[in-house]
Structures are given as structure tokens and as C-alpha cells.
Specification:
428 residues, alpha/beta, N-utilizing Substance Protein B Homolog, Chain A, Rossmann fold, 2 domains, 8-stranded mixed β-sheet, 4-stranded antiparallel β-sheet, 16 helices, 12 strands, 41% helix
């Protein structure tokens, strides 16, 4: 498409194709500069269009299938799915959506320009879909490898509710540096959540919001903010934040007055963490190292281990994830989590506590990990009473003493990411 000014729709179609045809996540494509040529507003729009398309991919395919005798080339398929989503899910102007889809087809190259007539005809038929037919469609099902595991863990009704939450997407959550959610919500026109986060609706430009430059708050899903709240460091306590970047939990711990060491393997991510600390006028010792080999001359009072995981709890924010992942590697991920727990315990003082967390919906990365850790380490205990912070429903506490959070919780408030959190304490 050289020679033509870039557009949000064209960039979104490229992003979608990158996921489905090249196996590249949306976030990795964006980080690599896929939207660099667009103005800031168009970058945001392209991202919103791509995210919406993945939330409705099965719906779009169901609309398209009767009008296609065979599958079109990958880029044309991405364009069609995007256009149907914009027409039916986002109430886009039919003339503008169809016209640009046809234009993008014509200038996409010799292999696809001949599909302009098909794109025009198919999208005009799709635009005539009754809104009630689109609205009546069930939530997009998760891939079988994940759906089966969730059905086994939570049952069919809960799994369908999780899928419905994924389709709705995720609002913008903020963590106030001073802990005053009510004041920040009033200032920004948001909602103070029961757990102390602030939720904004719509799609605001984060850096333009009052208080961003001053570091009065940072972006962090309400569920992701809970592990640091549950750790609840006393002022002056030494705390190690393992796998810390991009740093939301580090900021929370530092704001609470802890003496924080933040560790992550990625130099680029640690650079971002340091930038966030500086913006929020908070301090921590930043260490770039492997969590499995890190040693310390003195043990820590507490450790927060937000372990690398399948990220299946973040699908409402990253709807491309189900199209990129399968069950391959789950055993390796779980084995690394086990090793991280065991190593982290060696860095704690006697009587110290480890908060283990994953943004995963899978029991093998949460409930099962903690149950096995308790069986491996005599004297190690779970502390479910530490989970009883404001906003936590007691029914979310699991039998082994952890906290299970799911996207279908808080349906009236806009949901939350899927997370698992547990507090493990060494004997004194």
C-alpha cells in the first residue's frame, strides 16, 4: 500500500493478519512499530478495531460464511472480518466501512486487488444483517484446549460467563499512589472500585489524563493490583518483587513504604520500570537478573512472585491470545513456576511470607501449584486470612487457602482479569 497515506482500518487489517497468518501477538507487532506511521488518534483507533475483531471473530465468520464459496486470501479475510465487526459490533457507517474495505483491497497488491468486487458484494450483504440477529449470537467460545480445562475447573455456566466477559472487553483501571480511590475517581470522573482501584469507561488517552505526568496514579487492572495489597508491607519492610516489570506492583509496594528490590530478566522491561518509578516519584532497587538464580546477602521479609504463566486470565484485554496459544508448553510453564516458588522460599527470612500470583485461569498454575508447594515444604503454611481485604468476596477463597479471581466476577462493575493469589508463610 505504498504511495497511499496509512489509515487506521488498513493498519488494523495488517495487525489481524499478523496474528492469524504470522503468529505475532498484537502487542509484539505494536511494540515493533506496526502503528508508527499513524497519528496518535489513528494508532488508538487501529488498536481498538483489531481488538474488537478478535472479540467477535467467530461472529464475523458466521456472517461471512454463507456469502463465500471458498476462503479468500489471508489479507482479504482479515479485511472482511474487520469490516463485519465494525459494521455490526461497532455500528460503523456502512458506506464508509464498505468503501474503504474495497479501496484497501484494490491497493493491496496484484494478488488481491481482483477481490474488490467480492469484498463489495459480501460486505453489502453483511451490512443488511438485522441487529437482533447479531445481538442474539452466543459468546465466542474459547479454543477446546482451554475451554475443556475451564469446564473441568469451574463448570459450564461459569465458563460461558467467562466467555461473555471476554467479549465485553476491559475498561481502564488505575491505582492511586496515595491510596485515595474516591478522590481520584471524583477527579477523573471514574468509579472507585471496592478493592481500591479506579475504573474509567470509554477510551481516554492515558497520558492526557490529569495526574499522569505528576505520577499520581498508574494503569493497572483491579485484579492485578490485589497481590501487592494482600502482601501489605509494613513501612521499612524489605520486599523482593520477582518478575517485576513493567512495575505496577513495585510502585504499590514502594508507595506503601517498603524497601523494594525489583527484579526482572528483561533489560528493556526494567528500563520501562525505572521510567515508571521516576514518573511516580518512587524508589526501588532495580536488578536485571534471572529469578531462578538470583541471590541476596540478606533474606527478605516478604517476596511477591507474580510468576510467568499462560496469561489466560487476561484474554478480555488480549483477545488475540486464544488464536496464538495452545496447550503446548503448559507443563514447562508449570515446572518453571514450581522452581520459582522453591527458589523464592530460600530468599525469605524465617517467618517471612511469599505472595504467589499468576494471571492465569488454569488450576495447574494456581491452586495446584500452592497445594504441591505446601506438600513439598514441611512447616510451610497458607494464610487465607491475609486475603480478607476490602472488596474480596469470601466465596472466592479456595480450599487450599488461595484466592481465585475470574473475568465473570463483578459483572455489574465491568469484570476483572483472571488471577490467582496465595500467601505462603515460612515457620519462624
Amino acid at each position: 500500500m505504498s504511495g497511499h497515506p496509512p489509515s487506521a482500518r488498513g493498519a488494523a487489517a495488517d495487525l489481524i493478519s499478523g496474528v492469524l497468518d504470522r503468529g505475532l501477538s498484537l502487542s509484539d507487532q505494536i511494540a515493533a512499530g506496526a502503528l508508527h506511521a499513524l497519528a496518535p488518534a489513528d494508532r488508538a483507533r487501529a488498536q481498538r478495531l483489531a481488538l474488537a475483531t478478535f472479540r467477535h471473530l467467530a461472529d464475523a465468520d458466521a456472517i461471512l460464511q454463507p456469502h463465500l464459496r471458498k476462503g479468500p486470501p489471508p489479507y482479504i479475510s482479515a479485511l472482511l472480518r474487520l469490516a463485519v465487526t465494525e459494521l455490526l459490533a461497532l455500528n460503523g457507517d456502512a458506506h464508509g466501512v464498505v468503501s474503504e474495505a474495497v479501496d484497501l483491497t484494490r491497493r493491496s497488491g496484484r494478488r488481491t486487488e481482483g477481490f474488490a468486487g467480492l469484498v463489495n458484494a459480501v460486505l453489502r450483504k453483511a451490512a443488511a444483517t438485522p441487529p437482533a440477529d447479531w445481538a442474539a449470537r452466543p459468546p465466542q467460545p474459547l479454543p477446546g484446549w482451554l475451554r475443556g480445562r475451564l469446564m473441568s475447573a469451574f463448570g459450564k455456566p461459569a465458563t460461558i460467563a467467562i466467555e461473555a466477559a471476554h467479549r465485553l472487553g476491559a475498561p481502564l483501571d488505575l491505582t492511586p499512589r496515595d491510596g485515595d480511590a474516591a478522590a481520584l475517581a471524583t477527579r477523573l470522573g471514574g468509579t472507585a472500585l471496592p478493592t481500591g482501584s479506579v475504573r474509567l469507561t470509554g477510551a481516554p488517552q492515558v497520558s492526557d489524563l490529569p495526574g499522569y505526568a505528576a505520577g499520581d496514579w498508574w494503569v493497572q487492572d483491579a485484579a492485578a493490583a490485589l497481590p501487592a495489597q494482600i502482601l501489605a508491607p509494613a513501612k521499612g519492610e524489605t520486599v523482593l518483587d520477582l518478575c517485576a516489570a513493567p512495575g505496577g506492583k513495585t510502585l504499590q509496594l514502594a508507595a506503601a513504604g517498603a524497601v523494594v528490590t525489583a527484579l526482572d530478566l528483561s533489560p528493556a522491561r526494567m528500563t520501562r520500570l525505572a521510567e515508571n518509578l521516576a514518573r511516580c516519584r518512587l524508589t526501588a532497587t532495580c536488578v536485571t537478573a534471572d529469578a531462578l538464580t538470583f541471590t541476596s546477602p540478606a533474606p527478605f521479609d516478604a517476596i511477591l512472585l507474580d510468576a510467568p504463566c499462560s496469561a489466560t486470565g487476561t484474554i478480555r484485554r488480549h483477545p488475540d491470545l486464544p488464536f496464538l496459544r495452545d496447550a503446548t508448553g503448559l507443563r514447562d510453564i508449570a515446572a518453571r513456576q514450581t522452581a520459582m516458588i522453591d527458589h523464592a522460599l530460600t530468599l525469605l527470612r524465617p517467618g517471612g511470607r511469599l505472595v504467589y500470583a499468576t494471571c492465569s485461569l488454569l488450576p495447574e498454575e494456581g491452586e495446584r501449584q500452592v497445594a504441591l508447594a505446601l506438600s513439598r515444604h514441611p512447616g510451610l503454611t497458607a494464610n487465607p486470612s491475609a486475603l480478607a481485604i476490602p472488596g474480596i468476596d469470601p466465596v472466592w477463597i479456595t480450599p487450599e487457602g488461595g484466592l481465585r479471581l475470574r473475568p465473570d466476577f463483578w459483572p455489574d462493575l465491568g469484570g476483572m482479569d483472571g488471577f490467582y493469589v496465595a500467601v505462603l508463610r515460612l515457620p519462624a
